[in-house]
Amino acid sequence: MIEQFAEKMLMAALDKHISDIHITPLNTSYHIYFRYLDKLVLMKRVSYEYGQRLIAYFKYGSRMSVGEKRKPQSGAMRMSIHDCHFEVRTSTISNFLSQESMVIRLLKMKRELSTLPHFFPKEVEKLYHLLQRKQGLIIFAGPVDSGKTSTVHYLLRRLYDEKATHILTLEDPVEITDDRFLQTEINEAAGIDYDILIKASLRHHPDILVIGEIRDVNTAKMAIRATLTGHLVIATIHAKSSIGVVERLKDLSISDNLIYETLTGVVSQRLLPRYCALCQDDCQLFCQHIPFAQKRLALTDIVSIKYIRHYFLKDYALNGFNKQLKRAYAMQFISKRCLEEYWIDE
Predict the structure, then answer these.
(1) Three-class secondary structure of residue 183 per DSSP
(2) So what's the pLDDT on residue 263?
(3) Do 148 and 97 share a structural domain?
(4) Which residue among 78, 108, 138 closes a domain?
(5) What is the pLDDT of residues 301-318, one digit of tens each?
């Protein structure tokens, strides 16, 4: 019974392109929420006992201690339901009453995109042109679930199909499998982290090196080193804007001179909800006016090497994302609510 309910819940989330499920205690019951457009949408209420059994089911499958409720835990499991293969990452934490809550993140092996869903298709061609350099560091910035991985893989496939290219990726985890690339995966339990894989990858002389995320000082320095040795390096970083990328690199002990010499492009991206004439607002989860796969489109601020260097010369401000937001709002692609929520304070 629990297994069937869990599978049905997971398939419903996957069908609606939901990445996070929250199972939360509330008084004498549990509430199950889907996170959609950064908001929690209530999907179902179950009894307190049933909620506990549901959490225990995922804890057992994720190789967590089922009986331990005092300490926060995290785990992972691979699942296959009706020929749909995906990974589940789970995290639990208890409140002061020892009532457990769980967050389930779904990492589905994403499909290849024949086109890149974007508010302004001409911007995709600018991105493609940016990646045609032979050397340099291109950084994609944006929060979780902003479409960075899909964008990078789409552009890399276009490059490879045009000309055979040795592309080596370092990912955590691999989300889109592609036989055209040499894909490696971080495994910290086995002592395989970004630092080790970057060092090993340089011996393979890739034309393009993709670093899943610059997380710490060592990874940042290795990315710079790979760039200086003549490689095109594509990486992601946690920063809310283009200028935030530069400041984050400085925080990771990269000097202004090295950033000036190596950084050739910055892409700040978000997936924004489309305005729906039927909803008279952001297109809602259960609205069928716009297909699920098209409810959100990418919006990007692309900063090329020319403007990065102007920024260091103090005659250019890296604030293009807000301009793109205003452009999308003026063309009635997004709602006023969306404009205000995604506006980046400078």
Answers:
(1) strand
(2) 95
(3) no
(4) 108
(5) 999 888 888 887 775 667
